[in-house]
Amino acid sequence: MDTAMQLPVTIDGALMPDAHQGYGLPIGGVLAVDNAVIPYGVGMDIGCRMALSVFPLPEHELYQRAKELRNIILANTRFGSKFSAFDKKLDDAIFERPEFKEIAVLRGKRQTAVDQIGTSGSGNHFVEFGVVDITDPDNELDVPPGKYLGLLTHSGSRGLGAAVAQHYTKLAMNACPLPPEARHLAWLSLDSQAGQEYWAAMNLAGDYASACHDQIHRRISRALGEKPMAKVENHHNFAWRETLSDGREAIVHRKGATPAGKGVLGVIPGSMTAPGFIVRGRGERDSLQSASHGAGRRMSRGQAMKTLKEGDVRRELKDHGIELMGGGLDEAPMAYKDIHQVMAHQRDLVDVLGSFTPKIVRMDAGGKGGKGGE
């Protein structure tokens, strides 16, 4: 983050309480720059996001229908690259977007995007049934305080976003040579053709990620036989054109950071055994109107794979009443920071409207980790 703050295009920056190491900007890094975009300041998984559906079903249905809910998730989700396509695809207007014809890297990945629509990535991406506990009676969701069945998903733009990130990072590194410690922070001017192309491709990848979540929630809602009474969705790994508190226009990169402008709703997840939180941004200028995007890792993936034992993880999950399908040691609850401590550090950044506690969790079965979630 210190390196990013020294770039000649940098205007301002902030580091979130869940921050940990990553390529380019750290995860939890927020950087405002002048008329430029940094592909690795956005990240590999462009537009990675959270989506929460709150169903008009009481908490006890989660336990009474546990086997049915497990089967619904298994039938209506796909993870990773091995099982990354549905036999029967849902139509989506995203594929009519002109960017797929106008930008070469998108043309080359259109069929991959068609195949992977409605699927989830590897790493820390998940689909979960759990308990939504609405605690603030003045919430914008128009949901009375109480406990409900909820569906929470975390995933991004799949192979499409990765291809965009790789292609334009290479262009940025060639156009903007930097010292070795800063090379992943190479930028593209928004006055350049490459910068304009990346901006358009990034926005398409973000919309594609949203379309993936929409299809997951539609499939599962249909199988459940219920329509959500409220939804909350927010993304990270993105860049926005915003006006800063001093009136300057800037490109604000949030890599693993949740937008927290005044009144903006979002979801900040914990881990498999810890609750996530439904939040309302407070528009704090010192954090560049941002908050954490989760608990954040306290162990790298490699460290978790080397030091944690499967038996210990299984006991931890059992003690918390969690049913896990897929997943690996790199995503064990012990690999993450304490979400309650993280939330305590950002009381000035967000107000809490309620929580989501996972109970039935599906993740990629590869178990080898990956960059999902950067």
From TrEMBL:
Species name: Hymenobacter nitidus
What are the record keywords, sorted? GTP-binding, Ligase, Manganese, Metal-binding, Nucleotide-binding, RNA repair
Give the catalysed reaction(s), semicolon-separated. a 3'-end 3'-phospho-ribonucleotide-RNA + a 5'-end dephospho-ribonucleoside-RNA + GTP = a ribonucleotidyl-ribonucleotide-RNA + GMP + diphosphate
The prosthetic group or cofactor this protein requires is: Mn(2+)
Task: Indicate whether Transmembrane helix appears among the record's keywords.
Answer: no
Q: What is the lineage of its organism?
A: Bacteria, Pseudomonadati, Bacteroidota, Cytophagia, Cytophagales
EC numbers: 6.5.1.8
**Keyword Lipid biosynthesis belongs to the record:** no
Stored Gene3D superfamilies? tRNA-splicing ligase RtcB
Write down what this protein is called: 3'-phosphate/5'-hydroxy nucleic acid ligase
Q: Which domain of life is it from?
A: Bacteria
